[in-house]
TrEMBL record, chain B:
Native organism taxonomy: Bacteria, Pseudomonadati, Pseudomonadota, Alphaproteobacteria, Hyphomicrobiales
PROSITE patterns on file: ABC_TM1
InterPro entries: BPD_transp_1_N (IPR045621), MetI-like (IPR000515), MetI-like_sf (IPR035906)
Membrane-related topology note: Multi-pass membrane protein
Protein name: ABC transporter permease
UniProt KW keywords: Cell membrane, Membrane, Transmembrane, Transmembrane helix, Transport
ABC transmembrane type-1 domain mapped to chain residues: 114-329
Amino acid sequence: MNAAPVLSVRDLKVGVRSARGEVDAVRGLDLDVARGETLALVGESGCGKSLTALALAGLLPDGARIRSGTIVLGGVSIEGLPERRLRRLRGQRVGMVFQDPMAALNPVLTIGEQIVEAIRAHRSVSRAQARSEAESLLARVRLREGAQLLQAFPHQLSGGMRQRILIAIAIANRPDVLIADEPTTALDATVQAEILALLDELRRDSGMALVLITHDLGLVSRWADRVAVMYAGRAVETRSAATLADAAHPYTRALLAARPRRRPLRGPRPRLAEISGRVPLPGEAISGCAFADRCAAMTALCRRQAPETQRLGDAGVACHHPFAPRREVALP
Amino acid sequence: MTSAAPAATGPSARPHSTGRYVGLRLLQMVPTLLLILVTAFLLLKLAPGDAAQVLAGDSGGGDAAYIATLRQRFGLDQPIAIQLLLYARNVLTGELGFSFRNNMPVAELIAARVVPTLLLTGLALLVAVLLGVAGGVTAALTRGRLADRLIGAIALLLYATPGFLLGIGLMILFGVVLLWLPTGGYADANGAAEGWAHAGSVARHLVLPVVTLGMLYAAIYSRFTRSAMIEIYAQDYIRTARAKGLAPARIAWRHGVRNALLPLVTIIGLQAGSLLSGAIVVETVFAWPGLGRLAFEAVQQRDYNLLSGLVLCTGALVVITNLIVDLLYATLDPRVRLR
């Protein structure tokens, strides 16, 4: 990356209160997102990607908090900012789109009311002006008959339409960063591609950065510029999405191998590859590399010492024994 | 929900159905009102003796022939179904019978008491909703902290205190010790004040009964609002509201309270009857000339004509309240449609 990143995260730790006291679900995450780029944040369930998203938007739920680390947004560190200033960042500098569009809109307010209040929370424009802005926002997310749609209530609309409206709300104040947390998981397959294409188009037109959080590696090469693979609360590999097939971290390789493939024309469907073992639970003590137990390349060093992130070409890899480019995938 | 058919149930579906909703709701009231009518009629029939005997007794006793004539005149010799129809006809023309104890037509007795009762219960409901919502919202937003616990303790105390005890306590404190407010009655007896003076006098007499009746319901509503708000704050749309960068007060009001009103309105409708019977105690304690005290006296004096008239009247009040609540609910919740 040449330009200064619009979003920069260093050694982020997010603690979650649990029965065993406060445990870290994000354990030292480093991320950089450049202006106008799409970063895919990929990982299994429980790797801390959603908590990371919420932490970036300042929306951590009760019981979770940022324990340490820095988040720098557009050159401003959000650490120690008073709640008033944080609120100004939310919705203005950072927009957020969530997983379940069916539940994310208030059922008793019209679409218009919900978009207008997002605009007027950050800019002192008249109601009428905000309304006409809302209408053009609906056009930007490719929804037709905006004027009529503003009068509608969420229950009258489909999931795909609601997600478009939530995207319209998220971009209402032209944020620098749009965080989309599994934005298509709850939608039909056909609608999924449309929503991703829309997000991509909006990013290109506005120059905002897009953080696309997903568990689906299949989306990465098509929609992302770069990918960060998370495991047990850390980014184990960060690289260009174009070179994903050359992944250096054994975990990334294993994830790639575990993707479902198309059924061959002849013969039985091949059994899905899987990664044996399980993800360490949040708070579980980890000595050495978190992936060691499940890794074929594991050595005594991996047990002893957590790997530092090293540069390999354009990639950052936290592994003692990274794959060299173009090597075959070896699974245990 | 599918994403396939967005246009079919377009945003325009709503306005057409509003008028039909009201109409259907009104239609649905009819069977309920009929049931109340039959109940009131049966109450009259179950009472020992009938109107003819009472009348005969009133005129110093009479022979069997005289009673039979009376029965014939009032239709009491007809089969019970015909009597029910006659009763229904009377009710529909506003004829509710005669209260021999009060020596007045029942309709007149009730008409004189409706306004004070509506004044008392209406204001008590207003106080209960305002205090209950304010307390419940505060408790939910300060969950687990001092304010929450304090509000919870006060609500429990109020809820556990019998209405008459709270009433007498307030009466002694503000009416006897501090002499701030009158201890009972509807208005000052001396000098028939007119206009604003009269209204002011009524208002001062209203304070203690309204507070007494309202507090119990404020306690219930505050607990209810608290749990509704806590549930709503776990919803995704609250997270969306926070992601917009809205101020906490705006989130609480526009996204929290606005949605918490839905279950609250339902509860208010369900408790309309209980509010009226709660008024019996309060009206008796504060000598408030309302329907509740009238009913209490009617029971004591076994005034069946009056009692059945009261059953009809309060029954109709509850049905009307529920109609209002339903319409309110439909206004508050755009998803509501009559199936």
